[in-house]
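Input chain follows. Return structure tokens only.
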Amino acid sequence: MPYWEPLKEPSLKAEAAQSTSKSCARAGMAAIKVFLDTDVLINWLAKEVDSVTGQALWRASYQILKRVEAGKLRGFITIVNVMELRFVLRRKKRWSEGEIASAIKKIQQIPNLTVLVPTEADMIAAYNLQGRLPLGPFDALYYAIARATADFLISRDQALLTTINRAERKEIALTPEGFLGKIS
């Protein structure tokens, strides 16, 4: 059998995430696990504000990262997110190399935020997902890894959120504000 044949893939463990982070902490249960899309990190680092509505996009991202730091949530990103972050900060935000290095160091120092290196199995799962769903390569990889590691995927990419929630038949992909509302 060729290695690119479809694999059995685990679904997100949304059932475990039904409790709020507060009740999990009180009961001594494991923290809710969240996979963060690159845009969530960029919102926070660049203190982004929606140019149309004036909404401070960075605030909800910051609140999520503070909960990760405090151990109320367990956060996950990949080395690919870090590479994408570097690209966006360099090309689109025009940050200096020193500013970018400082931002990456800031991310690496957040307790309870794990930077994962995609495995061969992650890549095959992403390939399979991309074959079934309208996903770009990064989104397919992030979704594949989130399915294996997290209870929720947090992003501002509405097309990605819609695609994942339809595929999972439940709401496990949310905006930062939507996630905070769900766990509060």
